[in-house]
Amino acid sequence: MSLVDYSVARSNEPQPATPRLLRLQPGLWLAWTVIVLVVIVAFAPQWFTHYSPTEGIAGAQRLPPASDHWLGTDQLGRDLYARILWGASHTLSAALLAVLMGLIPGTALGLIAGSLGGRIETLIMRLVDVLLSIPSLLLSLSFLILLGFGTLHAALAVGIASIASFARLVRGEVVRLRHSAFVEAAQGSGGTFFSILWRHILPNSLTAVIAYAALQFGQSILALATLGFLGYGTPPPMPEWGLLIAEGRNYLSTAWWLTTFPGLVVVIVVLATNRISRQLAGAAR
Q1: 212: nearest Cα among 129, 279, 115, 269
Q2: Are 201 and 115 in contact (CB under 8 A)?
Q3: Which residue, 55, 129, 143, 282, shows the most beta carbons closer than 10 Å to its own?
């Protein structure tokens, strides 16, 4: 066999599959690293700092970033790095609650509307259209005024405002899958309505729903930070990322770090969740 024939034969041989993890883009690796690190910090912030997030240090007001205080101190002498770390637990837990509050009822409504059809579908989707026509922040503020202020109520308000978007997504997935070949085969095999819905339609629609839930997690962080900035979220002195930005806005000219570093943390985490959501959405297609 000549060298040319050998090269052609080698090119026609099946190449070993590259492990899926090795095919991940560097940006995706970075996004997952950010999310994992933030989750660890949220569960155990005391592992990363010995400063208190609520107690100030006498004579240490508005110190710039230095070796003793990596991100500086605020107007009461509290370590900003510690407050950001401890604020991760409040922000991420509230964002997770908001996603679950939108995911569970929204999935149920979308499943009912897409599977039953008829007047029930029309009624549910018209209600969804009305809710989607209202800006999400305005809708969250409306529910928050009814529920009262605080972290829990802010998370519930953001979650309720996202129910309509989850319902529309799930309904579309159910309608698409309802007319697919494998569902028709299951019906021809004698499968009942609920068994087909539970064993075939719902599992195959969850990939797109999970991808959207990851995107909604980042949007919930932004919404909660906005509500905290407006004074409707976590009350002081407990740290929360939106509240930290709001507390430092009066010192932009003299203590820029009070708003810059919490804002950067919010932006980085939201961008990481968006990148992961795009990856999950691509896997769903």
Answers
A1: 279
A2: yes
A3: 143
